[in-house]
Amino acid sequence: PGDPEAGELGLAAVPGRQAAFRQGLAAAVQYSRAVGCQRIHVMAGRVPLSADRAAVAVEMETTFIENLRYAADLLAQEDMIGLVEPINNRITDPRYYLNTPHQAAAILEKVGRPNLKLQLDLFHCQIMDGNLSRNLETYFPLIGHIQIAQVPGRHEPDSPGELNFPYIFKLLESLGYTGYVGCEYAPKGDTLKGLGWLRSYWESRGLQHGGISKAAE
User: Fold this and answer.
1) Hey, which of 10, 54, 67, 140 has its CA 20 to 30 A from 97?
2) Chain mean pLDDT for the chain
3) Is the peptide bond prior to 152 cis by the omega test (within 30 degrees of 0)?
4) Is 75 left (phi over 0), alpha (psi -120 to 50) or beta?
C-alpha cells in the first residue's frame, strides 16, 4: 500500500515511486510465502495531489504497465497470481487511479501476462457501472478473485440495498467460479451475528453450516 501516513494507497501506477513499489512487492511476496497465500493485490495507487487526472493518465498507465510486468515476472517465480482491483472514485476514493473493470481489462491486455488477474469487487463495480450480470460474464476469464458488499451501505449482503446476492451467487456457480468470495464489508453489528446471511444461504441450498452437503453427511 505504500505509506498510508503520506496519503498513499498503493504505488503500482504512481510515477517516480517504482523503487518503493518493488520493495513493497518483495515484502508482500515474503508474507504471502509464509502464510501460503498464492494471490497478491497489486494496488494501483492514487492520482498525485494537485495533479489533473486527465493530464497524468498516460504517464500513470505507462508506469502501471511497467510495474505490472515486473510484478508478473517476479510472482511467476513463486507460482503466485497478481490481482488488480478497480476501486470506485465516486464514493470510496476520488483520487484512486483504477476505477472500472473496463479500464482494468484494457490494462491487463496491454500487460499480457497470464498470472495477472482481475479482482472484481461487486460493490465498486455496481457504483461505477452496474450491469453486474453482463460484466461478470464478459470479464469472467480475467477474474482471479471476487469480493462482495451490499450497495450503498457496504454492509452484509442481506442488508437493505441494491444487490440480489442469491442471484449473483447462482450466476457465479453457473459460470464455473471455484475461487473464494471475499466478504469486503463492514458488519452493522456483531460479526458472528452478521454472518447469519451465510447460514441462511447454505440452508436454502440444502447445506449444513460450513457448506457441507446434508446428503454427504
Assistant:
1) 140
2) 94
3) yes
4) alpha
Homologous superfamily of the 4-204 domain (CATH): Divalent-metal-dependent TIM barrel enzymes (3.20.20.150)
pLDDT in tens, 186-200: 999 898 889 999 998
Smallest Cα–Cα separation from 44: which of 74, 83, 7, 81? 83
Helix (H, G, I), strand (E, B) or coil at 154: coil
Domain layout of the chain by residue ranges: 4-204
Judge whether 87 and 103 are in contact, CB under 8 Å: no
Q: Which residues are catalytic?
A: 85, 184
Can the peptide bond before residue 141 be classed as cis, meaning omega within 30 degrees of 0?
A: no
Taking the C-alpha atoms of residue 63 and residue 141, their distance in angstroms, rounded to an integer, is 25
Q: Give the C-alpha separation, 57 to 84, whole Å.
A: 17
